[in-house]
Every structure is written in structure tokens, then in C-alpha cells.
Amino acid sequence: MNKKELIEAMIAKTGSSKAEAERALGALIEVISDTLGKGDSLSLPGFGTFEVRERPERGGRNPKTGEELRIAASKIPHSKQVQRLRPQRTAAESKTGKTVLHKPAER
Q1: How many CB atoms are closer than 10 A to CB 56?
Q2: What pLDDT digit, counting tens, does each position of 29-74 carry?
Q3: Left if phi > 0, otherwise alpha if psi is -120 to 50, otherwise beta: which for 39?
Q4: What confidence score (pLDDT) does residue 85 get?
Q5: Average of pLDDT values for 21-32?
């Protein structure tokens, strides 16, 4: 779903106008951005949590030259959804961390 489709879904659910839905979505994005910009986290019970995580300094390579370089530490936004919104994983997926394609059961 893209932003336009999200706005259309909001209009269908709330009966609001397109302008109202666009303002509401814009305000939500702005509040989340401002909160994360201050280094705070934002929790929406039943949906998830938005927070800022620190990525430590690490080594890397210039893909053109192969030269080693240091990548500076940084802060990145992270979101974590509540358990009920996460896709259910099979036992095989949980062990390997990879998606397992399932064949349909034969009748």
C-alpha cells in the first residue's frame, strides 16, 4: 500500500474528506518524525513502537577500489510491531531465520 492508497483507505473508514485525511496523515508522520528527532520513542498500544537506535562505528570497503574504510556511528529510526501484527513463522523458519516455501497439501 502506498501513501495515496492509505489516504483512500482512511477516507473509506472515517468518511472524512481527502484534504482532512491528508492533513491527519501528514500530522501523524510529523509527530513521529519530531519525536524520533528528539531521541524519544513513541508507543502506540496495539500497533507498535517507534524508536531511535544507535548503530556503532564499523568497518567497510569501497566497492570500487576495495580500500578499507571506517563507517561512522549513526542513529537510525526503528519500528517494532506488536506480536499479533507479525507474520507467523513456521518452526523451520524460526530455526533458520529464512522463509520456507510450502507446497500445498495433496488431497
Answers
A1: 8
A2: 999 999 999 999 999 998 899 999 999 999 999 999 999 999 999 9
A3: left
A4: 72
A5: 96
Does the predicted TM-score (pTM) go above 0.85?
Answer: no
Mean pLDDT, to the nearest integer, of 86-91? Answer: 64
Q: Kindly compute the dihedral angle of the four CA atoms of residues 43, 26, 3, 45, in this order, to the nearest 10 degrees.
A: 20
Enumerate the β-bridge partners of residue 107.
none
E strand or H helix at 46, and its extent?
A: none
* CA separation for the pair 41, 30 (Å, rounded): 14
Could you give the CA distance from residue 42 to residue 86 in angstroms, rounded to a whole number? Answer: 19
Q: Quick one: which of 72, 67, 34, 73 has its CA closest to 53?
A: 73
59 near 69, Cβ under 8 Å?
A: yes
The maximal CA–CA distance of the chain, rounded, in angstroms, is 57
DSSP label of 14: H
Count of CB atoms situated within 10 Å of the CB of 50: 18
